[in-house]
Design brief:
The chain is an alpha/beta fold. The chain has 18 helices and 17 strands. Bound molecules: sulfopyruvate and magnesium ion.
């Protein structure tokens, strides 16, 4: 009997899947691959049930004779292993972001005389409703919140990009590029104090109040599903920080980063050019402990940010503080530097990793931007935050457009570099 292979990346079986299996059965014995958690991250697919439960779910479908794990979104390994006579898939992969996977499969099956069969993709009101519900569920606080910890388990490095409103949230959510390994996209979003303040035309000195910062989070959450890391500045008074932790947790934020400064906080990229005071180790540890004590779920992370290198207090101080904050309960450490050369940060990470191989490390390469993700992984970093690049790219573009409209007394000259309105509209989904 001929063998037929198809792959499922879902935790809900709808009529489209059943139709695919029925069509596959006409060709031979049906083997279904279930995509592993690790494989689907780059797809931004997360599930509301475990891998084992997904395997059981597929096993229970009438007409499926065998279920196997597919460990990559590319089919290379599984095809080499199974050499199926047919590969069956919905014809939605003929265009769009899945096309490169289909192209790869086509080449592979041709090589051994297999056949690729595209089944008309079932898309109707019911299927759309199932898809929408699934996405909305993933955006709910209880699912979104725990996703950062899941990503830390599954990714070699978690990539976060700055967002400060619904539109930048959509860019973080939907920007996908193809690369050698398949698809790539950001894993998480960073709600930066600098960019949240800048978007409001305010300085980054903890002036924008928490109610307003929470409003930004809500705007982003309304239109996205990816996990959020919140820039909590100094965290304020410990007596206030505990309320912030509760609110963030309830909203579905995955982590807050607080920095060990006290008094009037200025942006770290000013370094020692402005007066900034570092908190005492004891006092900052108290704040971490207070936050950890009120946290209600295991999902939420409090990340302690060490400012010693920014304030030129040296490597030893930065290490002593990092270990003290970890011992006070911090779930991860962010180490910051404003040196252009990444060596300082990388050296620090090496020294930290000599003593601690487990606690996740977070870096923000705004100044030391020559460093690659690969280098960061090699030095034990777990989260990289691209903290302000969307704001910094939008601002000069908008400024130039404003200047040119004034210069030419009309808008025609700027039109070529503008996104067509039709594209803007398609970025924003209607319910
Ligand atoms: C932010 O993005 O607000 C940060 C990172 O805190 S930095 O601006 O580098 O201090
Ligand atoms: Mg900040």
């Amino acid at each position: 009997m001929k063998t037929v292979y198809t792959c499922f990346c879902t935790d809900v079986i709808h009529e489209g899947h059943l139709n695919l299996i029925r069509e596959a059965q006409k060709l031979g014995e049906v083997i279904v691959g279930v995509l592993s958690d690790k494989a689907v991250i780059r797809y931004n697919r997360f599930f509301t049930i475990s891998f084992e439960e997904r395997m059981d779910l597929v096993r229970s479908i009438e007409g499926v004779s065998r279920v196997v794990e597919q460990k990559s979104i590319r089919y290379d390994d599984i095809i080499c292993e199974l050499h199926p006579d047919y590969i069956v898939h919905g014809d939605n992969w003929k265009t769009g972001p899945l096309k490169f996977i289909r192209d790869g499969v086509e080449k592979l099956v041709q090589a051994y005389g297999g056949q690729l069969v595209d089944i008309p993709y079932t898309y109707n009101e019911n299927v759309k409703r199932v898809d929408d519900r699934k996405r909305e569920k993933l955006a709910m606080p209880e699912y979104r919140r725990k996703r950062l910890k899941m990503l830390l388990e599954l990714c070699s490095i978690v990539k976060a990009i700055e967002v400060h409103n619904g539109l930048t949230g959509l860019i973080a959510e939907k920007t996908i590029v193809e690369n050698e390994e398949g698809l790539d996209q950001f894993d998480a979003m960073w709600i930066s104090s600098l960019c949240d303040s800048t978007a409001k035309g305010k300085p980054d000195i903890e002036l924008v109040d928490m109610t307003s910062r929470f409003r930004t989070i809500e705007d982003v959450m309304e239109v996205t599903t990816k996990p959020i890391i919140f820039d909590g500045d100094t965290g304020g008074l410990a007596e206030h920080f505990v309320y912030t932790v509760r609110s963030l947790e309830r909203l579905g934020v995955s982590a807050v980063i607080i920095e060990d400064k006290i008094g009037l906080k200025k942006n770290s990229l000013f370094g020692t050019e402005v007066e900034q005071n570092q908190d005492s180790i004891e006092h900052f540890c108290e704040k971490i402990r207070a936050g950890k004590k009120v946290q209600l779920t295991d999902d939420f992370m409090i990340i302690a940010r060490v400012e010693s290198l920014i304030l030129e207090k040296g490597m030893d101080d930065a290490l002593t503080r990092a270990f003290a904050y970890r011992d006070a309960g911090a779930d991860a450490i962010m180490i910051h530097s404003r040196k252009k050369d990444p060596q300082e940060i990388l050296k620090w990470c090496d020294l930290f990793r000599e003593k601690d191989q487990k606690t996740p490390l977070v870096v923000v390469p705004s100044s030391f931007n020559t460093v690659t993700e690969e280098e960061l992984i090699a030095h034990g970093c777990n989260i990289v935050i691209y903290a302000n690049q969307l704001t910094r790219s939008a601002f000069p573009a908008m400024q130039k457009t404003a200047q040119d409209i004034l210069r030419y007394h009309r808008a025609k000259e700027v039109d070529d570099r503008l996104m067509p309105i039709s594209q803007i509209i398609s970025l924003i989904e209607e319910l």
